[in-house]
Design a protein that fits this description.
Helices cover 38% and strands 13% of the residues. It is an alpha/beta fold and 426 residues long. A seven-stranded mixed β-sheet has the order 1-7-6-5-4-2-3, with helices on both faces. Helix 15 (351-361) packs across helix 17 (413-425). The protein is globular and about 70 Å long.
Length: 426
Amino acid sequence: MTKQLKHETICVQAGWTPTKGEPRVLPIYQSTTFKYDTSEQMAKLFDLEEAGYFYTRLQNPTNDAVAAKIAALEGGVAAMLTSSGQAANFYAIFNICQAGDHFVCSSAIYGGTFNLFGVTMKKLGIEVTFISPDAPEEEIDAAFRPNTKALFGETISNPSMEILDIEKFARIAHKHGVPLIVDNTFPTPINCRPFEWGADIVVHSTTKYMDGHATAVGGAIVDSGNFDWEAYADKFPGLTTPDESYHGLTYTRAFGKGAYITKATAQLMRDLGSIPSPQNSFLLNLGLETLHLRMVQHCKNAQQVAEYLEKQEKVAWVNFSGLPGNKYYDLAQKYMPKGTCGVISFGLKGGRDVSIRFMDSLQLVAIVTHVADARTCVLHPASHTHRQLSDEQLVEAGVRPDLIRLSVGIENAEDIIADIEQALNA
């Protein structure tokens, strides 16, 4: 079909197109290896002269089908699955940065990513400068250096729920000749398509809404194919100069728009190996088939819960960009007019201790180290996911000590609200 398929159809149909006699449902290719008839056939695969499968650490038909579906949802040219969202973030940066390089990153990001970029990657010789996503353009410009290789942000920050001005960030990145990498986990491509606003690479923790059922940890990197690596060849030698580990092959010349993902697969995945199991990709695909249905319900329920919380005497503040008075309401309307996601952050009068007592009183809503699945769940980031950060770092990451992250599921909204009400009264 030449017609551009709609999201709903892509969720259900993309990635796996069976021919006569093949299984209708994407099969699990639970095999580490793939057979060939001659040594020459295998040699061509190892030299990247032909496409095909020889070892699941590099490629697997189940994984590739699901990656193709996610690429289609985002409107990208190619995608690669990883074993976790953290692995996706690491690979996305490490694919274009090496020791001595630098990148700029929004400070309003998930605590695990903040630590990965600010602590662990520093040990590899890659420096990062964190800036407020709301900072004026000149201030963000000033963070760039001659060795800066990327700009990174989250479309909706976890857990502070700040909305990224994607067009502003894309304009700044491109002015400095680097790609904009955006984590689009919370809105998913159902509610936001960053490539349409100038982003170059998108990453996901597929563990969240894409899987949607808390069954499989995973990640994805999607390339738009729009960034011209050759135009800034001196900045990105890994892509634009010969790779000696592949007989002097140059990725941009050999693979064109597929250069970035091919390098990530053939070089980083080959050497570092954080692949998803085909079983996990199969489960992710089942989740993707209903993503377009679930996101509508998550957003609808979250809107009702946020409106309820806003009216409660014991609630100090509510941050949900679907509320007209919210600081990010206008940006949310621009980038995500159909809705943002099901996650709300709020605080209770009385601070941290009251927040913890409230959470311990919930019955239907579970305290879990997770977010964005079918079941409503709650977390206190300062005590849980972000507990490794100092108070200063918490503030920098947009996490107040009293912040409660509520991930509204797809149950009946009245039941969710009733549980919140009894916990507030308790």
